[in-house]
Amino acid sequence: MNTIEVRAFGELMKLFAERNWPWPLVVPIDGETNADDLAEKFDIPMKKVEILFVNGFAQRLDYPIKPGDRIAFVPPGTPGPYRLFLGLAQKQANEVKLGVKK
Question: Which of 2.60.40.10, 1.20.210.10, 3.10.20.30, 3.90.1720.10 is the CATH number of 3-76?
Answer without folding.
Answer: 3.10.20.30
